[in-house]
Structures are given as structure tokens and as C-alpha cells.
Amino acid sequence: MANPRGSKDSSGLDRRRKLAQTKENANYAEKRAQILASAAEAFAEVGYDATTLNDIAARAGTDRASVYYYASSKEELFQQVCSGMLASNLAAAEEIAARELSAAEKLELIMVHHLQTHEKGYPQWTVLVRELRRVTDARTEWSRDEVERMRRYEAVVRSILQDGMDDGSLRSDVDPEVAMHAIFGMLNWTHRWFRPDGHYDAATVAKEFAVITLSGLTQR
Amino acid sequence: MANPRGSKDSSGLDRRRKLAQTKENANYAEKRAQILASAAEAFAEVGYDATTLNDIAARAGTDRASVYYYASSKEELFQQVCSGMLASNLAAAEEIAARELSAAEKLELIMVHHLQTHEKGYPQWTVLVRELRRVTDARTEWSRDEVERMRRYEAVVRSILQDGMDDGSLRSDVDPEVAMHAIFGMLNWTHRWFRPDGHYDAATVAKEFAVITLSGLTQR
Questions:
Q1: What string of pLDDT tens digits covers the 220 residues of chain A?
Q2: What is the CA radius of gyration of chain B?
Q3: Is the CB of A174 less than 8 angstroms away from the CB of B132?
């Protein structure tokens, strides 16, 4: 990812970092992945505000000065940690929405993909959800783009709900906006309790969420 | 509320604050409520870490020194802002659980009470949910008590779900733990989108959540 706009870093280090990021360099990429993983861990455990570049460096087994060779600021590390997940969820939702499936089938597939993004991207997804206000405050081009992806992702789900209500397959006495928030609520609240190495796997949880929201808990 | 344990403040100001909090004093109580409301607003808008006592004082139309007459620290203000809501939800859930009602009826009543706590306690409930990690890190007696209330509150809901599965009124092919997290997920995620002065009222949203989780979105 390029530096976020507004970065004031224009030192020689900045040029060397950009050059290293551009060139194919396995060592650089590996070390950078390690620093990003350390940043994600730290943000998830103690929060963005309480994390220092020194903490991240220590977790990655390096020093603060070396971290600057991989990212210009804590904000850039945050963006790199969070980037890609909303884009993946949006692309999957748009692809699923276009298929010849019922609204209920589409919603279940989207729920499964969403929790699998969380599972595969752990703890990055946790960081994104916990620090969502940092994104939605939308002061950078990056955060504006992420907010736009989130808005479009929500719109796809709301539109599937509306289609199902219109074609009579879903009940129409519930507000599609409220139903959309209910679904994202249960999906995103997993940041509080779901762990990839825990008792549940993402697909099982998502399928149970689909049973709850589509069929309901009441026995028939 | 008493000072949190571990407070090192033992100045004359500390004694005067405790005295004022003990005595009936309408002016003191009013000013303290104003400072707490300002603290809740600031924590909700910019987050706990980024809020300073100066910010809170400015919002309350006073100065930092005066804030210390009402609370010994930012941490104490946070505790005062968040206190009472989990206790209210737990007490309501225990009272509802003891009634002669079906599991589904109990769950709906608990959802309505939960969102009404959010609505009445806005933006305090938002602060509690957004800064939940500050509570669950559980380094003070206050936070340990709050975590225990949260654990018991979740246990009441899980137990109602289990009872409904046992008596055959709720489907038993869903894990009650996952169903409990699904319900708290949609309830607590409202901190992202629900506003008391917005388009929806808490009872309407909670009843739609109950329809979604109990009857399901699929048209029958």
C-alpha cells in the first residue's frame, strides 16, 4: 500500500522505504509482514491509542528505527493492518448478490464469507471493528474509501433483504434497515468472543446465525 | 459512588469531595451530573484515551481544577459514567427470568429492556460498549464487579435459551452459547447506529430483533 496522503515524511528513509516496497524483495516483504502482524496483535490487545511504535518494534524483535523502514507512522501501520478486508467482503457480497439464488441463500453465503474473513484475518478484523471510529472519522483518503466500501457492503445486504421482501420469500413486517443492522451486529460482535483457535469454527457459527435470523429460534 | 480502590488521592480536596458527596447538596449534585454528562459525551465522541480532563471541563463550562472537586480522576469519571447500567439490565433479566412466561416471551422482554437502557442512558451505554475492554481488563474492584454482572447477565439469557430448548419451545439444533452471543451482538451493535433522537425508538427496534431471532426472516 502507498503511504497515506498527508504523510509529511519526505526524508531519505521515506524514499528508501518506497523503493523497497516497489522492488520485489522477499526479505523486505517477510520482515514487513512480521511488523504488520506485531502491529495487529498490539492494536488488538491494548488498542490503537495505547500502542507505541516501541511496543510494535519489541513484539517484532526489532527496534523503533527499523520499523520506520517499513511504515512511516503508526497511522500507516493501522491502515495496512485494516486494508483489504472490507474490499474482500464487498466483492464477495456483490458476486453473491448477482447469483441465481434466493435472498435467504445469498444472506447465508455472505454471513459465512464475513466470518471467514474474520477467522482468516485474525486479529486484523478485530482491530478494524474495535477501532472502527478511527476509520469512520474519515479524515484521510484511505478512511473515506473504507467508509464507502462499508456503505456499499451494507447496501448490498439491505438490497438482498428488500428483494426477498418484494418477492415474498422474506417477511415484510420487519424494517430491512433494522434487519441489516441485526445481521451485521451479530457478525461484528464476534470480535468480543470468537477466536480462530477456539471451540467454534467460523462457518459453523455463521450457519447458526443464518438459522437464527432466517428460520428463527422458535420450534415449529 | 465511592472512589475506586487504589486511588492515591488523599489531599484535602479528596476529603472535601467525599464530604460533599456524602452530604445532601442539590447544587453539588447538579454540577456533578453536568460534569458526568460532559464526560459521557466526550468519551462517546472521541474515546476515553483521547479525552482529557480539560476537554471535559470545557464541555461542562468549568475548569480542570473544579472537575477535581467532583471526581478524583478520569478513570473515576469513566466508572461513574458506566455504573448502574449493567446492574439494571441484570436485575431486570433476573426478574423476567423468574416470571411464568415462555422462553420466547422472556427473551423479547429482556431485549426491550436492554435497548431501553441504551436509549435512556445515552450516551453512557455507548461509552460502556465502546470502551468495554477498559472494563473487562478488570484491574479494579469496580471493573471486576462489572465483569461479574456481565457474566451473570449473559448466563441468565443463555439459561432461558437452554430452558426453551429443553421444554421444546425453542429449536435445539443451535448452540445456546452462539444464540446468546447473536442476541447480545445485535443488541450491543446498536451503539454504531441507534440514536435516541433518531428515526427508531428502542422498543420498536427490540421487538423487530425479537421477531428476527424468534420467528426468523423467512416468510411462512
A1: 444 444 445 568 888 777 777 666 778 888 889 999 999 999 999 889 889 999 999 999 999 998 998 899 999 999 999 999 999 999 999 999 999 999 999 999 999 999 999 999 899 999 999 889 888 876 889 999 999 999 999 999 999 999 999 999 999 999 999 999 999 999 999 999 999 999 999 999 999 999 999 999 998 8
A2: 20
A3: no
Instruction: Say how far apart CA B4 and CA B2 lie, in whole Å.
Output: 6
Please spell the DSSP secondary structure of A173-197, one letter per residue.
SS-HHHHHHHHHHHHHGGGGT--TT
Is the Cβ pair A178, B169 closer than 8 Å?
A: no
Which tens digits make up the pLDDT trace of B110-147? 999 999 999 998 999 999 998 898 888 768 899 999 99
In DSSP notation, B42-93 reads HHHHH-TTT--HHHHHHHTTS-HHHHTTT-SSHHHHHHHHHTTHHHHHHHHH
Hey, is the C-beta of A170 within 8 angstroms of any chain B C-beta? yes
Q: How far is A15 from chain B (nearest CA, A)?
A: 32
Q: For chain B, how far is it from start to end, CA to CA, in angstroms?
A: 51
What are chain A's domains? 12-80 (1.10.10.60), 83-215 (1.10.357.10)
Report yes or no: A215 at the B interface, CB cutoff 8 Å. yes
Chain B's closest residue to A207, CA to CA, is B174
Which among A50, A188, A208 has the least Cβ separation from residue B175?
A: A208
So what's the pLDDT on residue B120? Answer: 93
Residues A56 and A42 sit within 8 Å (Cβ to Cβ):
yes
CB < 8 Å & 24+ apart, contacts of A29-34: A31/A60, A31/A62, A31/A70, A32/A70, A32/A71, A34/A60, A34/A61
What one-character DSSP code corresponds to residue B190?
G
Chain B residues lying within 8 Å of A211, measured CB to CB: 171, 173-174
- Cα separation, B168 vs B150, in Å, equals 27
End-to-end, the C-alpha distance of chain A in Å comes to 51
